[in-house]
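User: Show me an example of a complex going from sequences to structure tokens.

Assistant: Sure. Here are the input components:
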Amino acid sequence: AQSVTQLDSQVPVFEEAPVELRCNYSSSVSVYLFWYVQYPNQGLQLLLKYLSGSTLVKGINGFEAEFNKSQTSFHLRKPSVHISDTAEYFCAVRKGTSGSRLTFGEGTQLTVNP
Amino acid sequence: DTGVSQDPRHKITKRGQNVTFRCDPISEHNRLYWYRQTLGQGPEFLTYFQNEAQLEKSRLLSDRFSAERPKGSFSTLEIQRTEQGDSAMYLCASSLEGLAGENTGELFFGEGSRLTVL
């Protein structure tokens, strides 16, 4: 079974600073990896996904993530954050090809301060 | 059709009552999922359907919970004899999966139905 660990439950940063949200996964099979964002009182929205190919994936709102198979990590980064990036971020893993459920981490609350 | 819709958005009920939530997925999507999210936690998988067939259920889904997708379109999640521990956000998601089992990977989520059991 797959599992996901988000190493930081809360990440406070100042506006325009870079940020990295860390995610590690465990799985015995090939996986698909995702980052979702949840703004207050809204549903989960996909930021980016890794299915195959280039290990550096770019998503919406200037976010990117790098798949590192040897370290089983999929960290999310943004070079310069905005106040509007304040939200809960979830890393998720799904078994590749014929996989069904998406397994989520516990989330990282990113708070961007002025 | 612009996305996954869930109804009601909020439900407050007394312990012991039954509640039902409805989910309308994106129209061409063949898979539909139910998740539960409690405060400060990530969503937890409950069950999913491929068309009208319920293919997997989590151990979290006790016998008080039942989900249906009778015509392969909308789905309902019913909780019988609610308990305070059932208080959570119930999320529905849908996806399009290929006939050969390949998938696009992405699940599209609704805004959720928040249940409060008093």
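The lines above are the inputs; the final block is the predicted structure for all two components together. Chain A has a mean pLDDT of 91.
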